[in-house]
Amino acid sequence: MIKLKRILCGITATTLFAMTLFGCAQGSAVADTASSQPQATDVSQSQPSSDAPDNTAGGTVKVGILHSLSGTMAISETSVRDAELLAIEEINAAGGVLGMQIVPVEEDGASEPQVFAEKARKLLESEKVATVFGCWTSASRKAVKPVFEEMNGLLWYPVQYEGMESSPNIMYMGAAPNQQIVPAVQYLADNGYKKAFLLGSDYVFPQTANMIIKAQLPTLDMELAGEEYTPMGHTDYATIISKIRASQPDVVINTLNGDSNVAFFKQLADSGIAAADIMTMSFSIAEEEIGGIGAANLANHLVSWNYYQTTSTPENDKFVAAYKAKYGQNRVTDDPIEAAYDAVYLWKAAVEKAGSFEVEAVSMAAKGIEFDAPEGKVTIDGDNQHLYKPVRIGVINAEGLIDEVYATPEPVKPDPYLTTYDWAASLNPIA
Amino acid sequence: MDTIMTMMVNAISLSSILLLSALGLSVTFGLMRVINMAHGEFLMIGAYTTFVVQNLFLTHVPKELFDLYFPVALIASFVVSAFIGIVLEAAVISRLYGREIDSLLATWGVSLVLQQAARSIFGAPNVNITAPSFLNGVVYLGGAVLSIKRIFIILLAAACLLIVWFIMYRLPFGSQMRACIQNRDMAGCLGIQVRRMDRLTFAMGSGIAGLAGCALTLLGSVGPTLGGNYLVDAFMVVVLGGVGRLAGAVIGAAIIGISNTVIEFGTGASIAKALVLVLVIIFLQKMPQGLFSIRSRALDEN
CB of A143 within 8 Å of any CB in chain B? Predict the structure, then answer.
């Protein structure tokens, strides 16, 4: 009886193993055949890849959308995904790209860089998308960068970041440090703030941003009061607030991200500290996050971005109206949302200039492309695949929106490695 | 002197938060030997219940009475969490009694389901809860600053502790519960309805977690991932303190809270978390059962 059981188990195991092998082999075979011939189905799909010929059959083109739809970053990234979908819908309604309708393929990075890397590979390898719009945290971008470089994909990254990076396969739609961080610290110095406390989440963006700020502070005659990092998702700021209180800074430069921002500002307001006592300047708080933190806790605090919902350009009026019409009147637009929206239109412009979806052709054609964005006119810088963007310092008001208090007269040229600043000469990128 | 006062005050506050979030877990883990990875989600359920109560008050109750939403929310959080705890216990946990690895996996799955349910019902972004105005303000103790919200949480933790102690040590229900914790089979043989005890205890533990969730809305964000931020700390408290005895949860929370605060003052938040974990591990090498464990004469010490 036992012998019979053993034989049966062995046969079952072998069969299952063989089926698995067979299934895997089939999977890659299907992908291979799909890449070389267009399928004769009613939805013909062009499979653009860097070596296959451009086999457009007047149908659809797939693009990837890779954001955190779950986890701690979902509070910020789901709206960025919404903006990209809005842009795709508008472009499709106007005729599509090169006559083809865009089909978005969404993947969830789940706030985990590892998952982002896996999903990026899936989008490029099995979905064979023409381009990907995605990522938020620098950790996720750093995780997918080698994937895009290995598989020659193209990523449009919509968020402000710490710079010190360039890649032929990434188009950086968000602010480089000289378009957000450096002008913000300059603004603080110009307005009489002398002592700064640096507080951030413990990952690459805050660490690099603070490295830049620490090099900049002495050149502005400003003093460093302290530097603290907390893990992502950290919620108890009692000790940190005590440390801030003890070191008596004029301003806290805040690079916290995600849930930590909510906890920090609630507890800061709780302990009786208002903007008039200790100002904060944040780089990761936009209109979307204000909703979760509470406008009362953030009243009169400063932020630095390139775009606010209140920015007055005719394109912005249309954009905000369209966004609210599609997603609800109580939704807000903010800088990464607007940058993601721009990214889709810039990709469309580059593809039409190149006449093809191939990554090399598109990135060559993208150099110098201009676009009348809701934030103002943006231009793709051919040297580093970043955008010329205007810099705007804003103050949070009681309604939860941000009012501009300062803007650069012209869009600022992106300088991710801070080559134009003497004091930045000794800075090395972290990874 | 100022620094020491501040450290003490922060340590007590952090310990009270840890105690609140871990109390329910200590009770259920102690009794049923079930590793409930969905414990954090009960905190989240309590927090979202508070959000719902707040919204109901915003739309249906005159402005002057708005602050009353908080006491109502406290009770509602307890009830809703307890109810969902009973449902969870009947559906999943009761089939996994004694099988610790299986309960870990199953409750982890339940936690993912609950998180996504919250995301689907309330949306992925964090929701805002306005604290009642009677909790605004600070108190100055020597050089230390303590907000009234934190004082409230300390008092709430103490009150919960007192109530649970009273139930466990002064009511017949409590002595039956303790009998089940000490020796489940023998308690069953003596006529105690063990299944019913499981259900009620799990409900109580989950209810306390819901209460904690309501209190935590005063301090942090309310979103689908709220549970994950507190789960690991709750488990550390329970493991350190030992299961089945209330004193264990209290002392465990105190040790972790104090060491976290003291180390954080010297170094940073990330390093403090890591060092506290190392301390707990070293400690457990010496006393694997935790600080306070039930010592019985049974041959098979569970």
Answer: no
Nearest to A242 among B10, B221, B269 (CB): B10
Rounded distance between C-alpha atoms, residue B282 and residue B263, angstroms: 16
Nearest to B220 among A78, A242, A263 (CB): A263
A250 and A360 assigned to the same domain: no
| pLDDT on residue B87 | 94
Q: Is B224–A74 a contact, with Cβ atoms under 8 angstroms apart?
A: yes
What's the whole-number mean pLDDT along residues A69-94?
Answer: 89
Q: How many C-alpha atoms does A64 have within 13 Å on its Cβ side? A: 30
Residue-level pLDDT at A40: 36
What is the C-alpha to C-alpha distance for residues A206 and A393, in angstroms, rounded to an integer? Answer: 19
Chains A, B: CB contacts within 8 A come to: 124
Most confident of the ranges A80-84, A232-236, A285-289: A80-84
pLDDT at A254 over 90: yes
Here the CATH number for the domain that contains residue A168 is: 3.40.50.2300
Q: Where are the domains of chain B?
A: 2-227
> Does residue A260 form part of some domain?
yes
Q: Which of residues 17-36 of B touch A (CB under 8 A)?
A: 17
- Nearest CB to A239; choose among B2, B147, B261: B261
User: Residue A300 falls within a domain, yes or no?
Assistant: yes
* Among B6, B147, B268, beta carbon nearest to A270: B147
Average pLDDT, chain B: 87
Phi, psi of B225 (to 5 degrees): -100, 15
Q: List, for residues A312-331, the tens digit of each pLDDT value.
A: 899 999 999 999 999 989 88
Q: How far is A59 from chain B (nearest CA, A)?
A: 33
Question: Domain total for chain A?
Answer: 2
Question: Does A303 lie in the same domain as A235?
Answer: yes
Distance between CA atoms of residues A400 and A413, nearest Å:
30
Kindly state whether residue A168 falls inside one of the protein's structural domains: yes
Residues in chain A with CB shorter than 8 Å from the CB of B3 are 246
Band of pLDDT at residue A54, cut at 50, 70 and 90: very low
Range of the domain at A252: 178-310+391-424
CA distances, B204 to each of B84, B167, B174 (Å): 11, 10, 12
Residues A257, A406: one domain? yes
Alpha-carbon distance B192 to nearest alpha carbon in chain A (angstroms)? 42
At A48, is the pLDDT very low, low, confident or very high (cuts 50, 70, 90)? Answer: very low
ipTM computed for the complex: 0.82
Q: Is pLDDT larger for residue B76 or for residue B297?
A: B76
Give the confidence band of A38 by pLDDT, cuts at 50, 70, 90: very low
Q: Do A272 and A415 fall within a single domain?
A: yes
A229: pLDDT strictly greater than 70: yes
d(CA B55, CA A179) in angstroms, rounded, equals: 40
Query: What integer is the mean pLDDT of B234-251?
Result: 85
Could you tell me which chain B residue has the CA closest to the CA of A203? B270
- The number of angstroms, rounded, from the C-alpha of B96 to the middle of its chain's C-alpha atoms is 21
What is the spatial distance between Cα B217 and Cα B288, in angstroms, rounded to a whole number?
Answer: 34
* CB proximity under 8 Å: A 226-245 to B: 228-231, 233-236, 238-240, 242-243, 245
The residue behind tokens 């939805």 is A43
In a shared domain, residues A291 and A366: no
Q: In the sheet where A101-108 sits, what is the strand order?
A: A101-108, A60-67, A132-134, A155-157, A170-172
